[in-house]
């Protein structure tokens, strides 16, 4: 990772933690940008901020709990006031690709339960068109080779994700297929097509789930709202 990108992640992560208010139920995202948000949030908790959080991954759960942030099971909360999460790509319509770290399923569930979802992004994440970043799709382990083949037969260059020489396993016990599409002309249509495929649990296309984007740019942070026509 370039130093500029790292600095932007730190900047935007720390700034996002300031969006959290006393009494909120907060969804904590996953990834390296969310890491900095969680660090700053923990400082605020130590200084007296009273919040409860739900985590979008085991990794985030462990990190936040180790820093003294109160984590609840998602079934214990009625709703989530604000979720702050990273993204792999975010376009002008606030559609996103997520799941580069394999956390897309819990991230999508938490986002769908949230009153407000804010994506925290360094400047490399903002794109005109989605698809340069491979689209992660979570598939069940059963018959995964056949599911992979179906993606290829449908014309989607697909690669099953590996880690340390074995298949990557998600928090839900599933595998990930990464679709190397290059560009996605119709995110909504693609999302529907993938949703219909047997063996698919979910995919990393986040359509109409994001309300605001906190974007690091030119050494500063801008809050973009969907109502701005972004
Ligand atoms: O599964 C991982 C998540 O979707 C992350 O939010 C996403 O990959 C962005 O991660 P990072 O902030 O590390 O670039």
Automatic annotation (TrEMBL):
Enzyme active site: 107 (proton acceptor)
Role this protein plays: Catalyzes the reversible conversion of ribose-5-phosphate to ribulose 5-phosphate.
Organism from which the protein derives: Thermobacillus xylanilyticus
Pathway the protein contributes to: Carbohydrate degradation; pentose phosphate pathway; D-ribose 5-phosphate from D-ribulose 5-phosphate (non-oxidative stage): step 1/1
Family per record: Belongs to the ribose 5-phosphate isomerase family.
Keywords assigned: Isomerase
Record-given protein name: Ribose-5-phosphate isomerase A
Annotated catalysed reactions: aldehydo-D-ribose 5-phosphate = D-ribulose 5-phosphate
EC number: 5.3.1.6
